[in-house]
Amino acid sequence: MGKPAAVVWDRSFLGYDLGGDHPLNPVRLDLTVRLATALGVLEGVELRVPERATDEEIELVHLPGYLSAVQAAPTAGWDVGHGLGTPDNPVFERMHEASALVVGGSLAAARAIASGETDRAVNIAGGLHHAMPDSAAGFCVYNDCAVAIEWLLRNGVERIAYVDVDVHHGDGVQTAFWDDSRVLTISLHQHPMSLWPGTGWAGEVGGAGAEGSAVNVPLPAGTRDGAWLRAFHATVPALLRAFRPQVLVTQCGVDTHREDPLADLALSVDGHRAIYQAFRDLVNEHGFKWLALGGGGYELLRVVPRSWTHLLATVLDRDVDSNRPLPAEWVAHATRVAPDWPLPASMTDECDPVHQPWGGDAEEPVDKAIRDTRRAVFPLHGLDPDDPRD
Questions:
Q1: For residue 225, is it within any domain?
Q2: Of 121, 143, 208, 337, which residue is most buried, by most CB within 10 angstroms?
Q3: Sign of dihedral through CA atoms 30, 36, 38, 40?
Q4: Where is the Histone deacetylase domain positioned along the sequence (predicted)?
């Protein structure tokens, strides 16, 4: 890597706090940065402090009336509407300000890339991919992913690929660019029959005039590292080669982990590390710029800090040995945060994320998903859905 990667971080991100026992607890961000710091991943890295996105910037994706609702919600009483005030999306103090800061963090990463300062940037507080133009959804108030993509399009970038590896379908980003052939959205997620939001079928391929711009790989519950990686390598690299994006935006949710309490895939921290390294290999091979965002992940102590430390290390080309023990000072702090929470000993789950390449004729459940997706979208990109070489 040439130019140093940009890392956007400030403790003010912790203000995006949905309160109480809500699954999206910002402690996961704090613990990630503490772990990456203790392991030396962030040594010498000048962290970029975000500023809140302006209303005009947020309105690149969201409707003005929705912004008004978010701004008024903390004092508006119970009848808020727009998906606000629900168990998933409770109203909290300074909700607009905290949400706008998350968007501002992803915009800061996008600006660093567009200006030529860097070829890679990461905002682990971002990745709020479910928010719709006029409503909150799935713990997401504003869709920082979509705002950053739209901003890049308006500032000189002509083709962007968005790859979402969260366990939940990247529905908000797909919706934002459904009719836009300049943006390729790819989502690998748990099958919509078994997980919210119930979208992301292989047949969802984009709107009129943008057919093939949406790609969905719905994976069966219980999918492990090897099968997940087979699905990824059977779809994503060929599509990126055909589409030739200038910028790759990745939503790196880690709720695919086998210990995540909200979903049913069965990946490991080692599988997550392999995903990030696969992204980096594609970036290096094709010369893409890379904007990496966080996302879901609700095993707050055992999974998210380790997985996203591997993400930061991969973006920065400072890979952490999987067998590296967790630093004593980090373990001590995490134990104070949750005294009864058993912690892992190292940066690995002791899994080997090796995968068998897709050959077109295997009969495991994941292979049907691969075939369905390839047959739905590969011909729209001039690719042969039945040829493993494509």
A1: no
A2: 143
A3: negative
A4: 22-314
Which residue, 182, 183, 188, is CA-closest to 173?
Answer: 183
The domain of 143 spans 6-220+239-350
Say which amino acid occupies 280. R
Is 105 inside any structural domain? yes
For residue 132 the two structure tokens come to: 């719709």
Provide the CB-side half-sphere exposure for 196 (13 A, CA). 9
Residue 100 CB contacts under 8 Å (≥ 6 apart), including other chains: 52, 53, 54, 58, 142
Of residues 156 and 360, the one with the higher pLDDT is: 156
- Residue 118 DSSP one-character state: -
| Strand partners for 185 | 162, 214
To the nearest whole number, what is the mean pLDDT of the chain?
96
Residue 196 falls in which region: left (phi positive, over 0), alpha (psi -120 to 50) or beta: beta
Residue 114 lies in a domain: yes
Structural domain total, the chain: 1
* CATH number for the domain that contains residue 332: 3.40.800.20
Q: What's the pLDDT tens digit per position in 116-140?
A: 999 999 999 999 999 999 999 999 9
Q: Which are the catalytic amino acids? A: 130
Q: Contact at 8 Å (CB) between 39 and 327?
A: yes
Distance CA 269, CA 278 (A): 14
Q: What is the pLDDT of residue 78?
A: 65
Any domain includes 143: yes
- Round to the nearest angstrom and report the end-to-end CA distance of the chain: 28
Indicate the pTM of the whole model: 0.98
